[in-house]
User: What shape does this take?
Amino acid sequence: MTVAVGDVELAGDLTVPPDPRGVVVFAHGSGSGRFSPRNRYVAEELVGGGLATLLMDLLTPREEAVDLRTGHLRFDIRLLADRVIGAIDWLATEPAVAALPVGTFGASTGAAAALVAAAERPDRVGAVVSRGGRPDLAGDALRRVTAPTLLIVGGRDPEVLRLNQMAQALLGGESQLEIVRGATHLFEEPGALEHVAALARHWFVRHLSGEGQTGR
Assistant: This one.
């Protein structure tokens, strides 16, 4: 489907299971898009857990062509965050998911965009998950993130782990750092991506549906 965000239209795939508990917007980074096999696998696992998912290209085809040559748009966190925010607002107009709590899932530089979106839509975003992300690139927005945030990093990705630890110290709300032992940046090792998907699924189900929480 087409997701209208500001003055651009972005291609997206919205999947809605029966009786969804929430909807998760995926923010891709580092030149990736909605066809990322890793994010599509995680999305399938979330759908299996009763969560709707929106995978979308954060760049238009023309912008993607420019980024392939220059690589600079994938680091334009403000642009990427505005696209994620636009997608969150767009979801509120879709009858099948309009009333659902929203989560954001970010990978690589997309994690920063997911966190900025959470900071700017605190009444809509109820949970954030970062996979091998660069949350540090969210800058001052980190202190304004009140949504519960899960940071997932490979144990063999030391520099990204260090950056995640620094970012976690700045987050304004509940946060948790999970280290997947033996995994490198892309979680290509046997069982690593499955572990990521299980962690993300549990986090979103818990925080978007209230399952396992008292007083909700």
Observations:
- The two ends are 34 Å apart (CA to CA).
- The first strand starts at residue 2 and ends at 5.
- The domain at 2-209 is CATH 3.40.50.1820 (Rossmann fold).
- Confidence is low (pLDDT under 50) at residues 212-216.
